[in-house]
Design goal:
heterodimer, A: 328 residues, alpha/beta, Rossmann fold, 2 domains, six-stranded mixed β-sheet, five-stranded antiparallel β-sheet, 12 helices, 13 strands, 33% helix, globular, B: 335 residues, mainly alpha, binds adenosine-5'-triphosphate, binds magnesium ion
Chain lengths: 328, 335
Amino acid sequence: MSLLEIKNLTVEFRTANGPFRAVDSVDMTVEAGDLRAIVGESGSGKSVSMLAMMGLLPWTANITADKMEFDGQDLLKMSARDRRKIIGKDVSMIFQEPMSSLNPCYTVGRQIKEVLRQHTPLTRSERQARAVELMDQVGIPDPAKRLSAFPHQLSGGMSQRVMIAMALACKPKLLIADEPTTALDVTIQAQILDLLIDLQKTEGMALILITHDMGVVAETVDRVSVQYAGQRVEEQEVNALFTDPHHPYTAALLAALPERATGKHLPTIAGVVPGQFDRPKGCLFSPRCAFADDLCHSTQPGKASADLGEALCHHPLKNGQPVSEEPA
Amino acid sequence: MLSFLLRRLLTFVPTFIGVTVVSFVFIRLLPGDPILLLAGERGVGEERYAELIKQFGFDQPIWRQYIDYLGGVLQGDLGTSFVTKKPVVTEFFALFPATVELSLCAIIVAVVLGIPAGVIAAVNRGKFFDQALMTTALVGYSMPIFWWALLLIIVFSSGLGWTPVSGRISFMYFFDNVTGFMLIDSLLSGQKGAFLSAVRHLILPTIVLATIPLAIIARQTRSAMLEVLGEDYVRTARAKGLSPLRVNGQHALRNAMIPVITVIGLSVGTLMAGAILTETIFSWPGIGKWMVDSIFRRDYQVVQGGLLMIASIIMIVNLTVDVLYGWINPKIRKG
Ligand SMILES: Nc1ncnc2c1ncn2[C@@H]1O[C@H](COP(=O)(O)OP(=O)(O)OP(=O)(O)O)[C@@H](O)[C@H]1O
Ligand SMILES: [Mg+2]
């Protein structure tokens, strides 16, 4: 049994201009202790897919899936009350903006201890002790004193450490880190990433790192899914993905990495992710794809076989060259 | 904190002087001679009239009268009523509990109903409850108090006979005035039915007085909540697996309270204005009715002193509100 199993997850938002599909038939399987990343440009539905799993989307979101199970429990059939017993405890999430993710009205200590009060039978003094221990674990100096600090007294990096402490409070089996370093200084970014990877090892939990930075992915995670315009276009082990990307979008993302650029100029992917109104008829990446032909422009591709990273493509790449493969 | 308080108290000085000027001038601008009004139909002889003018100091130039008045105020002497011959301060504190009792009940009703209603409306934005509540609030907000009070009296007092029409308690009961609050005194008296009678007398005036603040508080709570519900920290609270009650009623509401506290503070001013009408309609022996009666009698000293006391109370309430801000949201405390 996998820790997290998602099959064919689709999220549509009701908007004033009709429905908008932010996540489109996404699959994901995470085993206990996995370390993986979801990569994709802004707006590719990375956050929304994970928020859907957590049950944190607003009511305008219409969520459908063939299967969505966490630790053997069916999230689709579960009542909101039962789901609240899992989230914050067995699966927790940290966010992109640490400064605004903490409540300005309450002390840091209160916000950490609140999770413990909600999910554990610990007494008041045990919660206090655990909070100090957590603050120490995430590398906050003078933890006992910092517990009485208010969020506005902390820097961005410190706030993110507090968020991590909060997420770790009940020893979750899965931690989702949604672009945890995007809002931070470059030097702090590396520290926070190291901390997360460290904790993932010592706590033995699974970690899903959401990012748009392929460079970060290479150094940290084991497995990567690439998302584009709400679809998962490819998934591979990290080394295989970097040596032999199968989807043209992945290949283009990798080519755009500064350390891989061959010429003077950084190659960029021309065009933008399609939005609500300019969705192409065929493959969603076809308008920006160097290999696209008539088939790509007219028909939506199916999934390629597992040895081709289940690439969502009519002509998945192999060693940089398209192969014609019928959908598996 | 201390320097903040001192600075705020300092800004009271010009406001305070402004109020003395306005109240002093206002009552004198009204046509009508206080001495003639005092004498009533019997009239007053010319000699006696001149004597009284001198006694009250009306023979002095107006600026001289004002300086004398201000001098008295600074020594805590608000003057004496022409009519009752009692010091204004004494009268004020004799009647004040009645107004406080009514205003407190009204503000409690407005807060206790208004805040949860606003929260529920915001959480269920666009749904039936939200729309029904906002429509009701709009109606309540635009309700003419006078008309609303008469309507309630016609239905519940004259029609159904459920509530008394006027006063604070039935004449059957008689007991010592200990605190001035009828609800408490009636309990202390131990007389059977006294407390219930006091409650029944309070119901309609409270509803009338609470209507507008209730509508304002509900609307303000709703809009403040709508703003806050989209914040990241509310998502964090939900990601912790907290119940909707904790997420909305604690994490979100606390952040939404600043503008709500502001309107609660401001509605104390509105409440004073409302009390004047409400007390008059229900013959409620409080400050509002006292002010109206005194204006009709041209009881200069009472009107001046009463307005000054009311203004001071409103200033103190506003100061309290400012202090509350920092307590609710520590981020504000810095500045
Ligand atoms: N509540 C919402 N209502 C309508 N559309 C939404 C809502 N939340 C997100 N979207 C849309 O869904 C799409 C996917 O958003 P999502 O936040 O998942 O992107 P992302 O991959 O996380 O990007 P980023 O890197 O910028 O965080 C975006 O186009 C966004 O505008
Ligand atoms: Mg995102």
